Amino acid sequence: MNKFISLSLSILILNGCYEMSINNPPKPKKIPYKLEAHGDIRIDDYYWMRDDTRSDPELISYLESENDYFQNWRDSNIDYESSIYKELKSMIPDEEETLRVKDGSFYYYSRIKANEQYSTYYRNSSNEEILLDVNREAEGKEFYNVAGLNISPDENLLLYGEDLNGRREYTLRIKNLKNNSLLEDEIVKASPSAIWSNDSEYIIYAKKDEETLIQNQIYLHKLGTNQDEDKLIYKESDNEFNIWLSESRTKKYIYVYIEKTNSSEVWLMDKSDPLKPLELVLKRSEGHLYSVEDGGDYFYALSNHNDAKNFKVMRFKGTDFNDIDKWQNVLDDRETHYIEDMLTFTNHIVIQSRFDGIPIIEILDINSNKLSEIKMNDEVYDLGLAYNNDFNSSFFRYSYSSLKTTPQIYRYDLYDNENKVVWKKQVNNFLDTNYEVKRIKTLARDKTEVPVSIVYKKGVDLETAPLLIYGYGSYGINMDSGFRSSITPLLNRGFIFAIAQIRGGADMGRYWYEDGRMMKKNNTFFDFIDATKFLIENGIGNPEKLFATGGSAGGLLMGAVINYEPELYKGIVSAVPFVDVLTTMSDESIPLTTFEYDEWGNPENKDEYMYMKTYSPYDNIYKANYPSVLVTTSLFDSQVQYFEPAKYVPKLRENSTSGNPIFLSINLVGGHGGKSGRLESLKEIARDYSFILNIE
User: Fold this and answer.
1) What per-residue confidence (pLDDT) applies to 22?
2) At what angle do helices 643-655 and 57-75 cross, to 10 degrees?
3) Domains, the chain, ranges and CATH?
4) Alpha-carbon distance 43 to 53, whole Å?
5) pTM higher than 0.85 for the full model?
6) Which residues are catalytically annotated?
7) Tell me, what's the pLDDT at 103?
8) What is the distance between the alpha carbons of residues 359 and 339, in angstroms, rounded to a whole number?
9) How far is CA 216 from CA 168, 268, 274, in A?
10) Residue 435 three-state SS
11) Sign of torsion, CA 334 338 340 343?
């Protein structure tokens, strides 16, 4: 039987027959399920939708009916999707190539053609070699993602991870580059960021807990052996911590990071002798966050030790492990500058910081202790350290873009201060002089200034133009104003696009993050609402044509915002939204839950439970004039489980008194980022924007 049920017929769905039309959406069955904690009782009518196997026929039938319902509405409205998709695709050049970066004997790069979904990876010494043609690997697969490409030190082997459903449980494969054949070694359910030992005989990789998906194990794999023979190097017993691996740029060490929101610990593995026991740099302590860089004569650390809220740079000898009293301050904590990242070189430390919410790059001369800054021309922009694999290099590279400046890579010489563009992304049918970018300080209800960046096409009447505002506001993740070709079709149709740097991110420093998590989470939502109102009050955006969008924790933001202000926005696009906060955080079996206690709260604590309940979108739906809403998700999402948005939509729909359409669009194969493939991603963007234009 065909799973995809024709909309022209009556549909047998769940436990009843429903004639589906635009005015008659799917109505899933209700099975009241009692959830009780701290004397508080919640009833969830749609708890039954959780199926960890993702195979229940009744569930799949319901999800398919939601897709059909949304498709029926799309078919009955103006087909903006086709034109937007064509516009987005027309911006792609016939062929794109990344920057060629030298590593060992070869230059490495990738290339992708306009009609291709995936990149092909190359290297070149005297002749070009294909390392991996991802398009060929993806043939016949509904979902395919490759990550973690890593060349062995002897330059003969390619290690990479592949994901076939979006669950981010990668299978590691090894390719012999001499004869283009795969080794028999196969490592399943691993992190793709695996690292080679210096003798090219071992692979060090991280593995997740199969139920919670928290990355909590480190294994050592010897080439030519079965995975069940791999040696367990480390297993984290505290389920609030996650493990990450990275490699020192000196090629001496593998860093094993064990961290949660407000505590971290670093261990070192000797890349030349991976069988040696791990060496602890500094034992974890509550409230202390640090990261480590090998600097040759010294180790360097970013640390918030002694209440350095915006972090400082410290250095220490290997003999001073586990004795932070012997660590020396190299660059003190500054109230005005939030340090996000650093790279060590022979005589310099390159520091990525933020000043007044704007990213900057600073250079510290180790010998003279002189600190200098690279000046940027744009008012607001995005930048980051990139392609810096060589500790001994005399230069470093960084990426740069703005809302109207296409991505570029700069090379900065540490000794003569020469700063030049070495790569620029080609974007067809885009002229930066056609657009205006501004940064505005909006005012939240507690008188906090919240930065908002806006971009629009020149000549647009700002007071009458529709406004789409985007936000996130969680995990200390910043929303910088980098180039987004995807918004161009909306800008060309007269929209203003805005990015709100609300609390919960770390845009304005670590305190900005602390002011938007745990028991201060409502600041995130109020910042977004107040920023929107401020723009309107100051002549930016038509109050009758307000739209908002966010994904993941930004989807939580969307859900909370429309509960607080159901009539403020005309339409909402909520991607992979974390909307059932309280239920998820109360269930340790749900992936990543315990790792996020310090972000949202631990429901075992009554105060934290009750606070989460005040804003959890699913729990706070009520009879109200909700806006038009499009919710998107994927069945195999590993971060926000599909059942959260799947439950959210029917509950929101049955409580909305506005008559506005509310839709669920779900990829039945796909992950947190949607479908795989560049062109498929463009189709999903076109879908979202078509929804907005049809309700405008």
Assistant:
1) 61
2) 60
3) 11-88+431-695 (3.40.50.1820), 289-427 (2.130.10.120)
4) 24
5) yes
6) 552, 637, 672
7) 95
8) 10
9) 15, 16, 19
10) strand
11) negative
